[in-house]
Write a structure and sequence with these properties.
Number of helices: 9
Structural class: mainly alpha
Radius of gyration: 23 Å
Oligomer: single chain
Number of strands: 3
Amino acid sequence: MGAQRRKLMASLAVIFAVNILIITLAQSAQAATYRQGSSGEAVRTIQTKLQRWGYYDGAIDGIFGSETTAAVKEFQRKNGLAVDGIVGPRTLEALGMPTGGSTSSAQQGSVDLLARVISAEARGEPYSGQVAVGAVILNRVEHPSFPNTIAGVVYQPGAFTCMVDGQFDQPVADSAYKAARDALNGADPSGGAIYYFNPATATSSWIWSRPLITVIGKHRFCA
């Protein structure tokens, strides 16, 4: 009986260990989430980004307090996200931070943000021109002169007029979602461009100095 008991106890110990491992893996696979009461380096990064973009003027202390919550809500409101003050996968993606979640969640966040800019900047343009705008953003992500995330490129000060003229907050055209997916899948009608502009409205002499690659609709796409 002693040997059988030891064997049973050993089997139970193995089962227990396996269950603990499964739970641990499941928890690690969950997306990172930060809310009021959280603290640490990730919260400090959130505060820094929100301060840089004008949403937060409190202390960069890594403590998720009421001021940080209010700033997060305003950021969410301006970017078409659920306004709950919680920095989950979608908000992390919009902030240009690792989500810690599933690849599909991160990809959807990229599609949503890219589509919003495409719609704001190229609504009414030919479909290839919409894809090209998305491709320019992705080309910047890969270029050493620009931030290395979609959100970083989109929210870079002065990068896109839609961020200051209110177009970014308008409803997203259905075609923009398809254009965003095509751009993320590698389509690039811009020919590798990292700039584009509308010659009818451009006021910068510098942008005219950029080497022209192609013209699609009302936009000139440049290197």
